[in-house]
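A.,

Following up on our hallway conversation. C-alpha cells first:
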C-alpha cells in the first residue's frame, strides 16, 4: 500500500515589521494522505516563521504555494513527519478494521 501525501495552507497570519507590511508570521499546514484504494486522512499544524529579512522579503500578493512548501520544509519538517505517521496509522486502521460476523449459532 502506497500513500501519496500533499500539503495545503490556510490562515496566514500577517504583521507589520518596520517598513514591511503583510509579513507572514505563521500559517496552518494541512497534510493529506491518500492510499491506492482512495482512503484518505488529514492532519495539520501551525508553522511559525522567523522575523522577516528585508533583503529577501517577498510581497504578500507574490507568495506562491512553492514558497510555503519551502517554509514548511525548513520550519515544520518534524511536524510533517508526525502528520504522515498519524495519517498512515489512520489509513491502516481503516484497511485492517475487524469484520463483524454473525455468530454461527442462534
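Then the amino acids I'd put at each of the 106 positions:
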Amino acid at each position: 500500500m502506497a500513500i501519496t501525501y500533499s500539503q495545503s495552507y490556510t490562515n496566514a497570519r500577517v504583521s507589520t515589521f518596520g517598513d514591511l507590511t503583510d509579513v507572514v508570521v505563521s500559517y496552518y499546514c494541512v497534510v493529506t494522505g491518500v492510499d491506492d484504494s482512495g482512503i484518505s486522512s488529514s492532519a495539520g499544524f501551525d508553522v511559525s516563521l522567523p522575523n522577516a529579512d528585508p533583503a529577501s522579503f517577498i510581497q504578500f500578493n507574490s507568495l506562491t504555494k512553492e514558497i510555503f512548501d519551502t517554509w514548511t520544509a525548513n520550519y515544520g519538517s518534524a511536524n510533517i513527519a508526525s502528520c504522515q505517521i498519524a495519517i498512515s496509522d489512520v489509513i491502516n486502521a481503516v484497511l485492517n478494521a475487524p469484520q463483524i460476523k454473525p455468530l454461527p449459532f442462534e
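The CA atoms of residues 58 and 67 lie 10 Å apart. Curious whether your intuition agrees with the design.

B.
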